Each structure stands twice: as C-alpha cells, then as structure tokens.
Amino acid sequence: MLEIIKSNTSINFVSKFSKTAIISLILVAVSVFGIVTKLNYGVDFRGGAEIQIKFQEAVNLNDVRKTLKAAGFKGIAAQSIGELSENEFIVKVQGDETNLNEITEQVSTSLKNSFSAQGVEVRKVDIVGPKAGAQLRISGFQAMLWALIAIMIYIGLRFDFKYSPGAIFALFHDVTIILGVFSFCNIEFTLQTVAALLAVIGYSVNDTVIVYDRVREHEEKYADLPLSTHINQAVNETLSRTIMTSLTTLFVSVVMYSFGGLAIRDFFLAITLGVVIGTYSSIFVAAPITLLFDKFSKGDVEAPAEA
C-alpha cells in the first residue's frame, strides 16, 4: 500500500492545539461577520423570476448568461435541463414583488432579440415571491441543523457522548468558514450551495469518525494512558490515509471546478473548500474539543471525592 507519510510518525498534534484554536476562532468570527453582513442570497432565497426556454438550434449556456448580464439583470442563474441536444434551459433572475412580471417580460424580450436566429421559445414562467424565498432559506438552514443533530446522536451512540461536541463544533466550523468565503467573494448562496454544504458535512464527519474510532481502540487497549496520548497516536496512525483520501477528493473537485462549467462551479468550490477545511478540522478542531470536554467531565467527577 502506498504511504505518503509513514504509519509510525510521532507528531505531537496536541501541543499545537492552542495555536490552531486561535486561528480557528479568528476564522469563524470573521466568517460569521461576513455571513451576517455580506452573504448574497440567490434567486431561490430572495425571490425572482424563473423562465424555462428552448432554442431551436444549439446555444452556449455561457452566452445566455453573458447576454442577461449585459442587459443589466441581477442574480442571474442559468442551467440546462434534459439532454444537451434539446437545447432547453432554465433561467433565473432576481426581482421583488413590484417588478417580477416586468422583469419576466424583459428577460423574454432580451433573449428573443439576442438569439432570434436560434429560435427562442418561452415554455414556462414561474415567479418566486420574497416570502416564499425566505421560507426556502429557513428550510435550507433547518436541513443543515437536522443533519448536525442526527450526526451528534449517531456519534454519541456509536462511541461516547463526550465525542459528540467535538464533531458538531468541527462541522459548524467547516460550514461557517465556507459560507464566510462565499460572503466575502460575493458568491451567491443558492440551493446548490446547500447541497454542497450537506455533502461537506458528510465528508467531514466521515474523516472525524475514523480518528475517533482509532482513539477508542487505543482507549480500550491502554486504559491507563491519558486521552491526549490516544489522540496523538490515533491522528498519526490515520494521517497517511487522511492525506491520500483528501488529495484524491481534492483532485476531482478542483478539476470539476476548473472545467465543469459555470453551472456547477459554485457547488465544487464549496466541495473543494470543504475537503481542505474538513481535513483540518478533523484533527485540529474535533480532537481538542473532545479533549476539553473529557477534562471537564473528569473534573466534575473528581471534585466530590476530593471534598
């Protein structure tokens, strides 16, 4: 088996937890500020018009986006549906309750004027009001919240409830920083982003569970050793596997981000960030939080005995 890092490494990860904790706190704080003040919600969450169009001849999806952007529309999202040979697309643009019908007419007119030679047919028009968009936004965050709760319960039952806070803090850390990057880069937060974040949650918790499983094995074999020693041994033993898995996933996500087209670029940007941040948090967020909670729980138990 190929090993980038030898399995008998003895890096003292626990000694670095104090420094990485400061870095993580700063990143999360800055990200929360960006989410509250700068997060750019897409059409699905803010309201707008959704138009299904069909061309008689082949049209480049990027040309459709550029045409709408040049016409001055905001929050543009376009994607192909069905087979590529059918030349059918769904176009979304932002708007409010006062001008949604007007915007719909303007989009149709702009596309017909720019692609008259390709034969444009407007097949369906849907309007998403701001209230419906706000409800959808709440549902998206609720989906992530329920995922975190389910993971916390699973880890508590699978290992021990002292491990659950570390996993949840790590996932919160990952999701918050990704949304922070989206906020400061002015990238739209859409349903695709929610799907990507749920995928990141699944990937990150898988990495964390592998470390936890090795920690538990060491605890069962060497019960007299402190948890910090078990964590160091577990992280060192799984380090090669973690790096190889992360690099493989990262390679695919970067390729898809670079060459997959605009329709899936934001999705794979979130996945790419999630792989990097999730690998970091499995070692430098989940593990120290578990260590911290273990110390607190032992302090609560030992206090009455000392008294």
Describe this entry's structure for a reader.
With 307 residues, the protein is α+β, with helices and mostly antiparallel strands. It folds into two domains: 14-41 and 132-301, Multidrug efflux transporter AcrB transmembrane fold (Up-down Bundle), CATH 1.20.1640.10; 48-128, Alpha-Beta Plaits, CATH 3.30.70. It contains ten helices and six strands. It has helices spanning 17-38, 43-46, 61-70, 100-114, 130-158, 164-184, 191-221, 227-259, 262-284, 286-306, and strands spanning 40-41, 48-55, 77-81, 88-94, 120-128, 188-189. The strands form two sheets. The chain has a four-stranded antiparallel sheet. Strands 1-6 form a two-stranded parallel ribbon. A hairpin with a 6-residue loop joins strand 3 (77-81) and strand 4 (88-94). Helix 5 packs antiparallel against helix 6. It starts with 16 loop residues before the first helix and ends with a helix. Its main location: membrane. It comes from Halobacteriovorax marinus. It is a multi-pass membrane protein.
For this structure, the CATH topology of the largest domain is: Multidrug efflux transporter AcrB transmembrane fold
Percent of sequence in beta strands: 5-15%
The CATH superfamily of the largest domain is identified as: Multidrug efflux transporter AcrB transmembrane domain
Largest sheet: 4 strands, antiparallel
Q: What is the averaged pLDDT score?
A: 81
CATH class of the largest domain: Mainly Alpha
SSE topology string: HEHEHEEHEHHEHHHH
How many E strands? Answer: 6
Total helical segments: 10
Radius of gyration using CA atoms only? 24 Å
Q: Kindly, what is the distance between the CA atoms of the first and last residues, rounded to a whole number of angstroms? A: 54 Å
Provide the helix percentage: 55-70%
* Helix-strand category: alpha+beta
Strand arrangement, largest sheet?
Answer: 3-4-2-5
Uncertain runs with pLDDT below 50, 5 residues or more? 300-307
Family: Belongs to the SecD/SecF family. SecF subfamily.
Organism: Halobacteriovorax marinus
Subcellular location: Cell membrane
Transmembrane segments: 20-41, 138-157, 163-182, 189-206, 242-260, 267-293
